[in-house]
Amino acid sequence: MADTCTRIVEFSTDFLPEKDRIAYWREHYGHVMLRVDLEPAKNVAFQARMASLSLPGLQLIEASASPARVSRTGQYLADGNDDAVLAINRTGIAAVSSGGREEVLHEQEAILMMGNEPTSFYRTDPGRSFTLPLGFCASTFARTRVPADGIRRSSTRGVSPMRSRTLDRIRPGIPRA
User: Fold this and answer.
1) Do 9 and 49 contact (CB within 8 A), yes or no?
2) So what's the pLDDT on residue 176?
3) Cα(103)–Cα(50) distance, rounded to whole angstroms?
4) With CB atoms 3.0 to 4.6 Å apart as the test, which of 21, 35, 110, 173 could cross-link to 13 if both were Cys?
């Protein structure tokens, strides 16, 4: 039976003791929900808020945080998640490194990242972002091929420009070539 439940998850460090905020965020939000690591800026009190709406086949995440680096590397890459993720920087500035490229996102700029590539999202000042995981993309673009040995293998190579280890930077109001 298909999952038809709507889930809303909200999280804030506002009501946690300052000394417990980083550990709590890492465990409950970073390790469990997003499968990422957190390195908050030094000499700044860590604050974060997140609201997630999950519908069947769709998840929307609105988040804000003090300066910090959020990274998806090492053990998290081994989880097999190859979802495309559209991240829109709503406020502040964020430096993003993924797929061998680095981009600086200003307000209202977005970037498309892949879940199976080492990624770092670094906020130099407080900011907000909106994230849309596109889990359906990988399966939509996947194709099955049957080689001479008769063994079926799934492949996404050469199917979509999203899968070509590039970051697709989207600027509002500028048509894509």
Assistant:
1) no
2) 40
3) 23
4) 21
Q: Is residue 2 part of a domain?
A: no
pLDDT in tens, 31-89: 777 788 899 999 899 999 999 998 888 889 999 999 999 998 888 877 877 788 899 99
129 located within any domain: yes
SS3 content of the chain, % helix, strand, coil (to 5): 20, 45, 40
Domains held by the chain: number: 1
pLDDT at residue number 2: 57
User: Is 146 a member of any domain?
Assistant: yes
Each residue's pLDDT tens digit, 130-159 = 999 887 544 443 333 334 444 433 333 333
Q: Is residue 1 part of a domain?
A: no
CA distance 39 to 73: 13
Distance CA 104, CA 115 (A): 19
